[in-house]
Amino acid sequence: MTNQTPAIRHVDLCVAPEGAAGTPFAELFDLYTVDDSRDYLAHPDAVLLRDGTILVLYPVGHGKGAIQSRVSSDGGKTWSANPYPTPKSWENSRETPTVYRLDFCDGSTKLVEISANPYWWDQPEIASPGGWNASLSCDEGKTWSEFQLFHPIAEGGTRTVVAMASLTRLKENGAFVDKWMGFYHEQDSFVNCKSILSFENGEMCWSKPEPYFAAYRDAERRAEMCEVEVIRSDGGTGDVLCLISRSDAKNEKSFLSFSYDEGKTWTPPRHVPDSLNGERHKADWLPDGRLFITFRSIMLREGGFDSEGWCAWVGTFDDLVNGREGQYRIKLAHVYREDQTAPEPLSGDDTGYCGNVVLPDGTVVTTTYGRFFPDRRTADGTERRTCIVAKRVNLALLDSCLEQYDL
Question: Which strand (E) or helix (H) includes residue 35?
Answer without folding.
Answer: strand 32-35
